[in-house]
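Standup notes, structure subgroup. Blocker cleared on the alpha-D-galactopyranose input:
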Amino acid sequence: MILNDKVQKILFGGDYNPEQWPEEVWEEDMRLFRLAHIDVVTLNVFSWAALQPDEDTYDFSRLDRIMELVKKNGIKVCLATSTAAHPAWMARKHPDILRVERTGMKRKFGSRHNSCPNSPTYRKYSVALAEKLAERYRDYDNIVAWHIANEYGGECYCDNCEKAFRIWLKEKYGTIEELNRVWNTAFWSHTMYDFEDVVVPDLRSEEFEWGGRLATNFQGISLDYNRFNSDSILACYRLEEEAVKKYTPDIPVTTNLMGTYKTLDYFKWGKHMDFISWDNYPDSQAVPAQVSLRHDLMRGLKGGMPFALMEQTPSVSNWHAYCKLKRPGVMRLWSYQAVAHGADTVMFFQMRRSIGACEKYHGAVIDHVGTENTRVFREIAALGEELDRLGNELLGGRTPAKAAIVFDWDNWWAAEYSAGPSKLINYCGEVMAYYKALNEMNIAVDIIDAEKDSETDLSDYRLVIAPLLYMCKDGFDERIRSFVKSGGTFLTTFFGGYVEDHDLVVTGGYPGRLKDILGIWVEETDALPEGEENSFFYKGKKYPATLLCDLLHLQGAESLASYESDFYEGMPVLTCNRMGEGKAYYVASHSDDAFYRSFLGELCEELGIEPAARTPEGVEAAVRENENGSFLFLLNHTEDETEIILQHGGTELLGGRTFEAGESLRLPKAGVAILKRD
Ligand code: GLA
Ligand code: ZN
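Run returned:
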């Protein structure tokens, strides 16, 4: 159970901002919440200005009334600390709280998620507020979680951050000599004489815009700044966490994450969060696998523990280029998709649509019309009723995955900071290529980290895939080596193993630390501009080789396919090496969906990794298991009604029908079924 034992169902609700409304409206909200089966609200996300009108005054009177109202109505609370947007007086009196952008521009008061993480003012007052809230509301037994700040993120390059960066570096490297070594400062006369010489690597120093992305002259410096920035913001989270725990040690603490968000190393964050929660706002163009990947990543941050879906829009977001409505049934479908991948809550932003500023056209449970007579409200109420009926049946369910994909923020930063070999290098894109193939075959995937001292035991998996593992960190290669030796199957790709933790090249031939495991030596790499391709035949079919083509030599591995053209025609593009009891595959180029499907399909079959179910194209199947049983989710992402032949019998929980093995189950467009298997 991620929240507490008192929670006996999938909580249903979301961000509620009564402070934006006169109190007469609140009672009406309660009536509508009852109609919609809402049982949890996230309160107090952006109220700092009202809670602390000046340096010494705190005013909780309105929040007291809201807390009482919600309690009286039997609604649980996810209580936010309100520290994601500072009050105006604080910015006026203490400009150290204002961030400095990458360009060197000092911001003024405004926007949100706007405080410098190393500002003494921010740390002092955010912690004080969190502590006061915990002290004041400690006896409310309907608080199910603390929600610290909101969607932490961004960067700051101010003087305080620069000073803190130096301290962080000193702690990490000890001596200036070591710093010079790991940053390779002999290049371009960058030798630092003292930690005081270090400056933040923004656009005023090492960074520049190139080909539509952020580039740097010194990857090692930029990489360390990213780590430092993520740690600085995490420190803010941890300080508030500590503050609330003083008074409410038993209330779990979280903050809402954002999926594949590049700026924060969420694996590091996950270790310090009691449970993971995240906000799911896919673009209307996103394929289902993209969303599933993010859910699986979020689940992976705490070793497969269920997470909270903290926010999603009931209908529409206001900030996409085209704010396309979720079609009828899609809100329900995507809610169950989250649950299928490990969510134990279904929550929205926002409960009542605000009337001013940038979120007034963002979807809400209660629209501007103010009544229950909307399509969106009806869909929400129907889902709420369904979740009531499901009760605690699915809670705590785990995903039984035999395949894992490695995901690593350090690697993401380093690979995309790399000057060369191609501006098309896209870490998440490469992860997605492999994930999508597995997901579309209904193969469960865990997303795992790439640390030396990880809590993940690789031997839980039969197949471990590390797409574009440009940086192979200290000790990770050793984990892979013993995984393969003892019978595991490892797969990695082009641009792999080049560098160690500081982005220093591992000499002796690519793929560096992975060379012996893969039994190859990559001598050169050819970057193909967009539109150009090489090709290869695999099992009689021709597939494209694009983006990067490694020119490699076999050093123990066998070649499974080779390039069809250019001066490296005949050189291997797909290899397999045996090591101990296991195998290690190398995919030396980027190919297409058809290749990944076919290749990974065969690999899974050979390894006995079974799909959750065999379904028509576009129908996703996923399993969760808990002490109540094994639950098969069937999610129809297609535009048509479809039919699934069930391999197992069981009871379908949403409609109540029982099925025999071999029977067919019909799913309408956007339909969902949850089969409790016999
Ligand atoms: C984020 C924030 C919310 C709200 C929504 C709108 O997830 O946490 O406060 O701004 O986006 O989509
Ligand atoms: Zn700063």
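Discussed briefly. The first helix runs from residue 23 to 35.
Next: hand off to the docking folks.
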